[in-house]
Amino acid sequence: MGMDDGVAAALIAFLTPHINKHSGNIMMVVGSSECGKSTLMGNVLLPVFSRSNGFITTFMSPNYDSLPLQELIMKHAKGLKHSDRAKYREVETPTGTIQVPDFKMEYLYKTDEWMFLKRGFDDVYCRLIYHMRLMLNKTHGESDKVRDFRFCLALDDEIDIRGNLIREVCLTWRNKNISWIQLVQDITNLDCAVRNSAPLFFFGYSNFPHRREQIVRNYLSPYLVGKDVKAKMDRFLQLTENKCFIFMNHRLRKAFHINTQTGEVTELRELTTQADHEGQSSSEAPEPLPSQGQEVIHKKGDKVGDSRNSRVGETVHQQRGNR
Ligand SMILES: Nc1ncnc2c1ncn2[C@@H]1O[C@H](COP(=O)(O)OP(=O)(O)O)[C@@H](O)[C@H]1O
Ligand SMILES: [Mg+2]
Question: Strand 245-249 relative to strand 200-203: parallel, antiparallel, unpaired?
Answer without folding.
Answer: antiparallel
